[in-house]
């Protein structure tokens, strides 16, 4: 059907209708603008005006409820604005939480629980929602529901892993139960749990977390391995430390950094990158000492370690390696060194000590007056309780000035068979 638009009356009607729609739209826009202006003010009258000018806004009604609950300290008056907001938007978890909070202050546990469950239903995976829900359940004394929500937090927000794990441990300090029911297969959660247990000196618990961690395909940082090894060594659990290093080597592709029957010293010729952790070489900046890998001068392999001394206060070169050994066992040590015009009383020494008792098992002569590669070697027998040695290069006498260069290479330590 066709309509003729050439009559004057029809043209006037269409124009009037357009003007009317424009006026309605303009009035509507003006109302929304006025509501937004009032809504930005925290005063009670402004919030009332905002809700009045825009009665379809759940946010304005919820803000009015928050004013009653927080500013006016009248949670009973906040209930109806909160409910009005939820009638307009029942899918906002924050609105449900505000309602639950008002019921909590009023002591209405039933309605509080109902509002809380609606909040979780509206947004079941958002960490902020789960965090608030977990704390609500803690206040109510419902530990199982709280733990369930903390699991949601751990699953979805790595930044909250540490506080979430700490709260879970307070609720139920049971490593097995938490690993089974709460801690998800996430590296951040495992690391947070491992760190917590180390701080609590729960060594047996750390082993369980580590086992779960390496069994998971989720990646984690080598730094975590190094920190755990330091903890195990400090607690004299050398056997577990060796196992952890073997598992880490398989996980991170570091099989070349494992000690062997041919040499218990890892990376003895410095052909590999220095990891500065684990059972590889570890270094720490020392006063008046500089460490450099030198590819221009070496005894074996393709580079050596150059140690430059330049000043007083030198006690140690700042590089060391931990070596796991057996008690009551005869070992043979050897290393090569070369120096360039070392000045000062005494000199550097290769020293091997018991990490726990500081008993010296091997101490070389002064590493001086060798303008060519020279061997330093010896034998020693470990004590009845010796499990971990530390190899380092110390200054004798300690602290006295020393200047010059020392190259070291081809470290080797093996058990000597009868």
Q: What would your notes on this structure say?
A:
With 418 residues, this protein is of the alpha+beta class. Among the domains are: 110 residues, Serine Threonine Protein Phosphatase 5, Tetratricopeptide repeat (Alpha Horseshoe), CATH 1.25.40; 134 residues, Jelly Rolls. Strands 1-4-9-6-7 form a 5-stranded antiparallel beta sheet. It has a 5-stranded antiparallel beta sheet with strand order 2-3-10-5-8, with no helix packed on it. Strand 6 and strand 7 form a beta hairpin. The protein is elongated. It starts with 7 loop residues before the first helix and ends with a strand. About 2% of the residues have low confidence.
Topology summary:
Layout: H1 8-39, H2 44-53, H3 58-71, H4 75-88, H5 93-106, H6 109-122, H7 127-140, H8 143-156, H9 161-171, H10 175-181, H11 187-199, H12 203-215, H13 222-234, H14 238-252, E1 282-283, E2 289-294, E3 304-311, E4 316-324, E5 330-343, E6 347-354, E7 360-363, E8 374-381, E9 388-396, E10 402-415
Antiparallel strand pairs: 1-4, 2-3, 3-10, 4-9, 5-8, 5-10, 6-7, 6-9
């Amino acid at each position: 059907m066709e309509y003729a638009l050439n009559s004057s009356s029809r043209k006037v009607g269409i124009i009037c209708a357009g003007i009317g729609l424009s006026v309605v739209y303009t009035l509507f826009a003006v109302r929304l603008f006025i509501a937004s202006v009032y809504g930005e003010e925290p005063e009670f009258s402004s919030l009332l005006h905002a809700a009045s000018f825009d009665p379809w806004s759940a946010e304005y009604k919820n803000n009015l409820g928050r004013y009653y609950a927080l500013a006016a300290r009248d949670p009973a008056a906040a209930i109806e604005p909160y409910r009005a907001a939820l009638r307009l938007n029942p899918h906002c978890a924050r609105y449900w939480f505000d309602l639950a909070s008002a019921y909590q202050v009023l002591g209405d546990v039933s309605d509080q629980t109902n509002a809380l469950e609606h909040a979780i239903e509206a947004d079941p995976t958002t960490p902020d929602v789960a965090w608030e829900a977990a704390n609500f359940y803690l206040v109510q004394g419902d530990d199982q529901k709280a733990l369930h929500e903390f699991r949601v937090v751990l699953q979805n927000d790595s930044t909250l892993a540490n506080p979430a794990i700490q709260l879970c441990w307070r609720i139920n300090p049971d490593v097995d139960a938490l690993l089974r029911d709460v801690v998800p297969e996430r590296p951040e959660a495992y690391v947070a749990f491992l760190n917590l247990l180390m701080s609590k000196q729960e060594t047996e618990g750390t082993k369980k977390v580590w086992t779960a961690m390496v069994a998971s395909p989720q990646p984690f940082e080598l730094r975590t391995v190094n920190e755990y090894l330091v903890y195990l060594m400090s607690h004299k659990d050398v056997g577990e430390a060796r196992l952890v290093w073997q598992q880490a080597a398989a996980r991170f592709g570091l099989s070349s950094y494992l000690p062997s029957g041919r040499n218990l010293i890892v990376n003895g010729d410095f052909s590999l990158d220095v990891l500065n952790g684990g059972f590889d070489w570890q270094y720490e900046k020392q006063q008046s000492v500089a460490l450099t890998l030198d590819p221009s001068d070496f005894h074996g392999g393709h580079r050596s370690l150059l140690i430059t001394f330049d000043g007083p206060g030198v006690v140690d070169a700042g590089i060391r390696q931990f070596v796991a050994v057996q008690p009551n066992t005869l070992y043979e040590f050897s290393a090569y060194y070369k120096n360039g015009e070392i000045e000062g009383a005494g000199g550097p020494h290769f020293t091997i000590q018991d990490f726990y008792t500081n008993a010296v098992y091997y101490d070389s002569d002064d590493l001086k007056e060798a303008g060519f590669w020279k061997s330093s070697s010896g034998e020693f027998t470990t004590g009845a309780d010796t499990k971990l040695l530390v190899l380092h290069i110390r200054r004798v006498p300690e602290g006295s000035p020393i200047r010059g260069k020392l190259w070291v290479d081809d470290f080797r330590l093996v058990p000597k068979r009868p």
